[in-house]
Amino acid sequence: MTVALVDVTRANPVARLLSALLIAVALVFSIDWVSALTALVLETIVLLTSGIALRKFVQRSLPVVIAAFFTAVTILLYGQASGTVHAQFLLIVVSDGSIALAAATFLRVLAIGLPSILLFLDIDPTDLADGLAQILRLPARFVLGALAGFRLIGLLQHDWQYLGYARRARGVADHGRVRRWAGQAFALLVFAVRRGSKLATAMEARGFGAYPDRTWARVSTLSRADIVVIALGALIGILSIAAAVTAGTWSFIGAR
């Protein structure tokens, strides 16, 4: 049985968003392995002690690890050469500089990507929209429009499937895969525009565009636990920068 010190998975979506954003902002200022590794270790400790099962943690982390690996390989082979050159073939140059940069990039992608993946996969879009509009005071029309669009993403797959069935039934999808795909994509775009227009009219008729006196079905607020989650994100960012400065690896991005 795991004891959750801070249950970040139950925090307000806005608190999770701000926490992940603070970590990302702190890490983009420098490309060094110390700050990235420090942030990664602290994030792992917080996430594993927040009630996330180890198996679930590994499964959700796998896509980020794969993306980080391929990014690091690209930097390793084609990054800026410096120091001792270990291998060279055409445009591929593996040197001390590219190895260090690849390692730092690998850790940095993990440190920035893991909080986003682990914190946002199970978020209810409606809860996130409520928080964005009520806590961050983003324009209601923008938030509700984005929420409606997000809710309709699942329909695109069904529309694409039904379009394929209809075109095959009419005998226009038997030959020319590229031409068929282009025609079907255009038809899907037309469907999306029509549905968007109808949805906008329906939302306006039901008062979704009311401003400034609109009401919300569910109130979204930040609790003390949410403040702790935001503070943890800020603390991880500060400690990772402090560790890099102390180790002498901090290098402000763009500085020579």
What labels would you give this structure?
two-stranded antiparallel ribbon; mainly alpha; transmembrane helix; ECF_transporter_component; single chain; cell membrane; Energy-coupling factor transporter transmembrane component T family protein
Oligomer kind? single chain
* Main beta sheet strand tally, sense and closure: 2 strands, antiparallel
As for the number of domains, it is: 2
Number of helical regions: 9
User: Going across the major beta sheet, what is the strand order?
Assistant: 1-2
Gross morphology: flat
Low-pLDDT stretches are none
Q: Overall pLDDT, averaged?
A: 82
- Give the helix level as a range of percent: 55-70%
Radius of gyration: 24 Å
Estimated share of beta-strand residues: under 5%
List the helices and strands and how they pair.
Elements: H1 13-27, H2 33-48, H3 54-78, E1 85-89, E2 92-95, H4 96-120, H5 125-134, H6 140-151, H7 153-169, H8 177-205, H9 224-247
Antiparallel strand pairs: 1-2
Helix pairs in contact: 1-4, 1-9, 2-4, 2-9, 3-4, 5-6, 7-8
Pfam family, one: CbiQ
Keywords: Cell membrane, Membrane, Transmembrane, Transmembrane helix
Transmembrane segments: 20-49, 61-79, 99-121, 227-253
Task: Provide a descriptive summary of the structure in words.
This protein has 256 residues and is mainly α. The protein folds into 2 domains: 8-126 and 221-247, no CATH class; 138-205, no CATH class. 68% of the residues lie in helices and 4% in strands. The protein has 9 helices and 2 strands, in the order αααββαααααα. It has helices at residues 13-27, 33-48, 54-78, 96-120, 125-134, 140-151, 153-169, 177-205, 224-247; strands spanning 85-89, 92-95. The chain has a two-stranded antiparallel sheet with strand order 1-2. Helix 1 runs antiparallel to helix 4 (96-120), helix 3 runs antiparallel to helix 4 and helix 5 runs antiparallel to helix 6 (140-151). It is flat, with a radius of gyration of 24 Å. 26% of the residues are buried. The model has no long low-confidence stretch (mean pLDDT 82).
